[in-house]
Structure formats: C-alpha cells, structure tokens
Design a protein that fits this description.
- The complex is a heterodimer.
- By secondary structure, chain A is mainly α.
- Chain A has one domain.
- Helices cover about 75% and strands about 0% of the residues of chain A.
- Chain B is built from 15 helices and 2 strands.
- The chains are: A mainly alpha, B mainly alpha.
- At the A-B interface, helix 2 and helix 9 of A face helix 2 and strand 1 of B.
Chain lengths: ~270, ~260
C-alpha cells in the first residue's frame, strides 16, 4: 500500500508546481462561470416557469462546477501512461512488484486532486460573496452537507475508473486520439458539463440519470444544491456505487486480458 | 502568395499520409462541437426564445461563429501553436530565413482536420437559412459573408495576440481561452444576452460583437441600420494592435539557446 502512497505524493507535488497556470486558470474559470450564469439569466427572463431549478441553485451548481473543473475534467489523460504503452516503456512497469491498474489509477487521482486543490479555493471564496442570485450558497441542509463529500468522492472515482478504460484501449490501437476526443465529448455532454442534466428534455431524463456519466459530477452537485434530496439523493449515491463497482470490475478484467496478450518487442 | 499555396498543399499532403487517422480526427472534431449544438437545441426546446431571438436565428449566429473559428483555427494554427515554436527553438530558424515572420509562422502549421468543424457549421447553416424566415436578398447574403470573413479575421488576430503573450509567459496563457474557445462557446448566442457591460466589452475591447451581434440585428431585420452591414470590416482594424503587440514581443525575444 505504501508504494501507491508515494506514487500519489509524487504526482500530487508535481501538480502543485504549476502555480502561474493555476492563477490563469482561476481567472478563466471565473469569467467562464460568470458568462454562463448571465446566459442562463437571459433564459430565465424569457421563461422562468420552464426553469427546472431555482436560479440560486443553478448558481451554486455552476460555481461548484467551475471550482472543481480539474477534478472532473473529461479531456485529461496522462500522456506518460499513453506513451509508455506506445513506446513499450510499460514493460518496465510490468517488472515492478505492483499492480499496473492500481498504479495508473492512483496517478490519475493525484493529478486531479492536486490541480483542484490549487484552483478551487479562490473561486469558491469569491463566488460565495457575489450578489444574491448569482452567488454560491451553502449546502441545502445538513443532509446535503453530509452526503455531498461522499458523493463527490464517488464521482471522482467513477471518472478515473472510466478513463482507465481509455488507457487500456491504448493496448489495442496505435493512436488513441480519436477515441479520446470522442469519449471526452460524450462524457462531457452526458455528465452535465455542457448544460446541467435537469435542463435536458424530460423524455431523456430517465435514461440519462442511470448512465454512468450522471454519476460523475451531476449527482454530487445536485445533492449540494438540494435538487436531489431525501430518498432520491440516496438512490443516486447507490447508482454511483454500482457504476463504480461495475467500471472497476470491467477495467480490471480488460486490463488482465490485455496484459495476457501484450507483446513488447525489442530490447 | 504562390508560395503560400505551395506550403498549404505540402501540409495537406503530409497530413493526408495517414488517411484513416486524418478522417478519424476530423470526425472527432465534428462530433466534439456537436455536443455544443445539442446543448443549444435542448435549451431552446425548453425556453423557445432568448432575448427576443428564435432558435433558427441563434443557429445562424452559432454556425457563422463556429465556421469563422474553424477557418482561423485551420489557417492560423501556426499562431495557435506558437508557444511550441518558441520552446522547440524553431522560431530561431524562422528568424534567419529571408521571408516575413508572419508568413513563415502561418505556413509552419495548418491543421486541416479542423475543417470537420467547418463541415458541421455549414450543415447547421443549411438548416437554419430556410427556417429563419429571413428574406435572403443579395444584401443579406453579403452581410452573412462579411460576418464570416470578419469573424475569421478577429479570431486570427486573437491567435496572433496569444502568440504575442507567449513571448512573456508560457504558463499564464490559459486566460486567453476566454476569448478564443470562450467566444466559440459563448459566441453561439448573440452577445446582447449577456447584458450591456459584456456587450460593450466585446464591442470596444475585443470586437467580437462587430461581426456577430450588430450584423445579426440587420440580418434578422431587428434593425434597419444599413451601417451594421459593414461593421465586420471594421473588425479587421483589431488586427493592428494585435500585430503590434506581436512585433513588440518579437523585439524583446531572446532565444533560449541550445
């Protein structure tokens, strides 16, 4: 277990080095969140009855999304891992007395956490002091406050275990660029990063909510804002757990199969 | 100019060497912006109008902005990837050759897979043009063309500005995304929906509204002001300060050596 702890630490500390980039990122995300809210405000003016949540709930959702962008980014893939497969460097990793799946998993977890820890605080802080409907409000209740961190952690594990599938696919294809582009746009859209899932047409809601993508960022944010509460909230967390278990099992099985077949050429 | 097309042909040929990968990536680009389109249509499915604009009017705006963006991403890609030219030391090579810097940066890189996005915007435009209820006189067609050209000019100027900043910082460049990627996303809607302050900023500081909002007003008949027709041409002026900044950066450029 200790070895994974140090993989985590190395990646985490490396991520903390990019401070100037983090400041630029913070200001970008702040502008991005602000413009998004102004856009929804315009939609709110043209039909507030059709709004699936209150405006201040939406504001909290958008600010959480911007602050935690790095936690759930769908387009992030570790180039070192991808290159290690295409160049054959993975052979060295396989010689080590540790599990490849767990090592890649931990590395990804660390990068996401370190980037987020640099970026989230200023956004959360400023966003909670904005004028009334546009600000980040407190969690909807003690239930939400309790369930949110659990659901957030599960969401992070789901996105990492999903991206593991893409890493594993690199054993089978020469270039993963196409599959990465495709998967990141699918994940982004169906996880509610383009528009929040409650804004999707009603007919689609039932399907979308049980897809693994809803378990990524949508569930924790909607729990925080109180859009999902009571039994519904618990159900969504259960769905998250199910998907996490499913993706882990699937990823491990595929990895096992890929490693059985893998042939590293040259010396 | 002849030399430019020669370079373009060479780059196109080299990218076509891996045909499957080329078309896969182009298809990927096509699908990536498809999600933005779906987002817009879902919101209109729910709200029908925004700030007095209908779905098909917004689609015209969306597709022209997307087309302008993908054109400049394809042809001004050299400036978009400029930080890499600095990091790899290729800029030094460029500076020693007896041709203009801008010309060489432009011809150093063109990414034709970005035309996947252009294909999508053309499809969207084909849907929106008959549905918008606009009476397409010659003037209105001219207006749409000018919007496209003006847009490509503004986005290309932004890439030049971005390249200018990369002389001073490599890490802090992310904020430029608000104006490039951000305008691709938020420019899908007429800029007035974001309120007066934002509209003013994008009129007088970064002239996105000059090719997007005001001509759209004329195009959709919301305003009879003929002058709006020619505002996209004014957006070309934006190239001057961007280019001046780039020259300023170049003037201060010290090679990283090795």
């Amino acid at each position: 277990m200790r070895q994974y702890g140090s993989f985590f630490r190395i990646r985490f500390l490396a991520g903390l080095q990019y401070r100037a980039a983090a400041w630029a990122g913070v200001s970008t995300q702040f502008a991005w969140g602000g413009l998004t809210l102004l856009l929804y405000a315009a939609f709110h003016r043209s039909g507030s009855a059709n709004f699936p949540m209150t405006f201040s709930q939406l504001s909290s959702y958008i600010w959480l999304q911007q602050a935690l962008l790095a936690l759930f980014m769908s387009w992030y893939f570790d180039n070192e891992i991808l290159e290690s497969v295409s160049t054959g460097g993975v052979a060295y990793e396989l010689c080590r007395p540790c599990d490849l799946y767990a090592m890649w998993f931990v590395k990804n977890l660390a990068v996401r956490l370190s980037r987020t820890s640099l970026r989230c605080a200023p956004i959360l802080l400023v966003a909670s002091f904005l004028p009334a409907p546009f600000r980040l409000s407190a969690p909807a209740g003690w239930e939400a406050a309790l369930l949110f961190p659990i659901s957030l952690a599960l969401g992070l594990l789901v996105i990492v275990s999903f991206s593991m599938l893409i890493y594993i696919s690199s054993f089978y294809t020469i270039s993963t660029l196409g599959i990465r582009l495709l998967s990141s746009s699918v994940v982004e859209f169906f996880s509610g990063a383009v528009i929040p899932l409650p804004f999707f047409p009603e007919q689609l809601q039932a399907v979308i909510n049980v897809l693994p993508f809803a378990s990524i960022q949508s569930t924790p944010f909607l729990i925080y804002t109180g859009h999902l509460a009571g039994r519904q909230a618990l159900q969504s967390v259960a769905v998250q757990l199910l998907w996490l278990a499913g993706l882990l099992v699937l990823g491990r099985a595929l990895m096992g199969r890929a490693l059985k077949k893998v042939v590293v050429q040259g010396g | 100019m002849k030399l430019y097309w020669k370079y373009a042909a060479i780059l196109l040929k080299s990218q076509m060497q891996y045909k499957a990968s080329f078309f896969m990536t182009a298809a990927g680009q096509f699908l990536v912006s498809f999600s933005a389109l779906l987002g817009v249509s879902f919101l209109f499915d729910r709200f029908h109008t925004v700030d007095g604009f209908t779905f098909s009017e917004v689609l015209i705006c969306f597709s022209i902005v997307l087309a302008a963006f993908s054109l400049s991403e394809c042809f001004a890609r050299g400036f978009d990837a400029f930080p890499r030219l600095i990091q790899s030391g290729k800029l030094d090579q460029i500076l020693t050759r007896p041709r203009g810097v801008v010309f060489q940066v432009l011809t150093s890189n063109m990414d034709f897979t970005r035309l996947g996005r252009l294909a999508q915007s053309i499809l969207v435009l084909c849907y929106a043009v008959p549905h918008s209820g606009i009476d397409w006189t010659a003037e209105k067609i001219l207006c749409a063309c000018l919007m496209l050209i003006g847009g490509a000019a503004v986005f290309s100027s932004l890439f030049v500005l971005y390249a200018g900043f990369s002389f001073f910082t490599i890490e802090g460049l992310e904020f430029m995304n608000i104006f490039t990627d951000g305008m691709r996303e938020f420019g899908a809607y007429p800029l007035s929906v974001y309120g007066g302050g934002v509209l003013k900023f994008f009129t007088f500081v970064i002239p996105v509204a000059l090719f997007q909002y005001y001509p759209l007003l004329y195009l959709t008949g919301k305003s009879q002001e003929r002058g709006f027709l020619f505002l996209p041409l004014l957006a070309f002026v934006f190239f001057l300060p961007c280019y001046a900044f780039f020259r300023f950066g170049l003037h201060h450029y010290q090679s990283t050596g090795s």
